[in-house]
Design the sequence.
């Protein structure tokens, strides 16, 4: 599902409005770095405000991309970065990461329709016929099929492959935590709690080069 998006990179994120808010974020960054699991803070655009060392390690093999680096905008990374499936579950990347993120994006753009960053993401979706079909036709069908709970992030278990060969994590539980201070700044925190398993890795990497429509949704009429 990933493709080379051609939109604008997210605009620089504004600093908190008060020194107290900035001091809080500085201390919160120290807290994040003490967490052994990948943990990051995003705003309503999915721009990454803070990320810990475990997050950077998880996505360290992501190749250069003009708009979809994981520590810049996590939504763009999931949808548009060609290396994302290697970390986010290969064959399950579409159904268990992309479609839930698209569902949340649909809600975000409904609430913040005039936001220029969200509008740029929407334009990039529209530029790819497969992505547009997923967003307009496939997404409603998928939500009806799997239920509303499938689009929630908090508590869900999703596929994940750690680049460190010594780790056997094949999935993670997404935990969403938002303190009052973060909420007042318009931010939320997500932690990917690695779950060690004995699953056998996928035999081969699937690519999108020959796809004509998303495997997890019906083709558009």
Sequence:
């Amino acid at each position: 599902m990933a493709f080379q998006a051609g939109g604008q990179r997210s605009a620089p994120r504004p600093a908190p409005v008060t020194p107290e808010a900035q001091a809080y974020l500085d201390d919160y960054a120290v807290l994040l770095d003490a967490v052994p699991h990948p943990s990051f803070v995003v705003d309503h655009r999915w721009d990454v405000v803070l990320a810990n060392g475990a997050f950077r390690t998880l996505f360290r093999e992501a190749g250069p991309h003009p708009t979809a680096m994981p520590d810049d905008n996590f939504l763009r990374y999931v949808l548009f970065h060609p290396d994302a499936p290697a970390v986010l579950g290969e064959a399950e990347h579409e159904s268990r990461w992309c479609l839930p993120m698209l569902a949340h994006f649909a809600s975000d753009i409904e609430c913040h329709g005039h936001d220029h960053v969200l509008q740029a993401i929407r334009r990039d979706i529209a530029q790819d016929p497969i992505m547009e079909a997923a967003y307009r036709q496939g997404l409603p069908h998928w939500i009806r099929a799997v239920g509303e709970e499938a689009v929630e992030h908090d508590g869900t278990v999703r596929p994940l492959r750690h680049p460190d060969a010594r780790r056997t994590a094949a999935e993670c539980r997404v935990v969403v935590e938002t303190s009052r201070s973060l909420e007042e700044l318009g931010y939320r925190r997500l932690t990917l709690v690695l779950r060690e398993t004995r699953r056998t890795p996928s035999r081969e990497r699937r690519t999108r080069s020959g796809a004509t429509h998303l495997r997890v949704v019906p083709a558009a009429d």
The longest helix spans residues 93-111. Confidence is low (pLDDT under 50) at residues 1-12, 199-213.
